[in-house]
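Researcher: Structure prediction, please.
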Amino acid sequence: MNVKELLSLRGKITLVTGGAGNYGKCIVEGLAEADGTVIIASRNMDNVKDVVSRFCEKGFDVHAMQVDQGDHESVLSLKKAIIDQFGRLDVFVNNAVARPMKGYDDPMENFAKSMEINATGAMDILREMASLIEQGGGGSIINIASMMGMFGPDLSNYKGTSMGNPPPDYFFHRAGLINLTRYLARIYAGKNIRVNSISPGGLFNNQPERFVENYSQKVPVGRMANNDDIKGIIVLLASEAGAYINGENILMDGGMYA
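Model: Predicted structure follows.
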């Protein structure tokens, strides 16, 4: 098969949770540019509808749906809505993440809330969406983890800024998601469902200039990630071009940890 056909997502129904976020919008754009039909699901429908409207103005096939990942009934409602409107699901990009903790000294109640959404909720939506993919004959699940799930924090990045220490819950659940990816790749063996994860480094989002300088000087390519950097990996793992990639975690850090 021609490589352009292998990378095409034409006719594929794809779901991106947290698709209105910073990396989420990049992911949605990449999938849509590969001719996929993309569903963005999030709690904030006003925000999602605004993002969908801007993508549709570009001629992309993008749709908005609501889900609260911490609420099982909401996850089931999303599942039903996908079946009712599209009849199946081919690709699930598990990208949503809550950030209730703001630093190391935050109350433990915030850590518990993070686990409710980012651990229990993530497992819940993964199982439900995987069952949809299985019913349709198979497909791909892509977990968006993080470089921070693979390594401890480099606190020197924050030197000279007022950003403070990064919150511990994010490191905890991103690391767990990476190994859950390997677990699910084994569990879904024989069901034609591939499960992989991507661990991106920092995306430039107008952070303080000192932080950007501290960070970029440690990266061989000399910069933070931009909006296009994750698109190719997403399309590869979502499409037939990645048909023999399974159970992998891909570090996308510009060589920082080379």
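Model: Residues 108-135 form the longest helix (28 residues).
Researcher: Thanks, that helps.
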